[in-house]
Amino acid sequence: MDRRIALKNMGLALGYTVATPTLISLMQSCKQDTSPDWIPEFFTPEEGAVIRQVADLILPKTDTPSASEVGVHKFLDRYMNEVSEPEDQQTFRIHLGNFIKKATEKAGKQIGESLSPEELEPVLAEALKKRDKAEEDLIGKTLETYNEAIAEGKTATLDEDISTFAFATQFRGAVIWSYKTSEYVGEEVLAYLPVPGEYIGCGDLDELTGGKAWSI
Prior knowledge:
Layout: H1 3-9, H2 21-32, H3 45-58, H4 72-82, H5 86-107, H6 117-127, H7 133-151, H8 160-180, H9 183-188, H10 205-209
Helix pairs in contact: 2-4, 3-4, 3-6, 4-8, 5-6, 5-8
């Protein structure tokens, strides 16, 4: 399916917080920051370079801008730094670290060396490959047990492959969510109505918006 069509029809069902004053402020600051030399606030420079490239692997430039072109990487960096809970920051950084470790090993590089999109893509693809229900259930239970232990302040370990899967799936959802809430996508791709008028609760989406999901 064409990505533009997918974005138009996709509902915001990822479980993220919808627009609040804090998130709106973050979005606006990312829009204003057009410097090509981005310095992450939460991520290290190495981590920042990886999330920027992985975001563009998830949503590359087609007939719409890439994820990085609408500032997804900057928004997520500030979101992690200013909104996320400490335990969420900790677990996300662990998963990201394992993803980077696996990618550098696969590329025959050392930690800290730059990774190209071509070196990151196969690791992302492997993490996001389709799994059967039994394997998904096992991974889900393992992650639940791990997250509960971390939340309780206990020492816990997690298989590197499961950790990489956790990063890839969580980050993919975050990238899509951030992309859909960017100003460009909200106004140019989704159905946008700055001053709402009549409320039609049971109208046909094809008739009301041409099949587009509403911009939030």
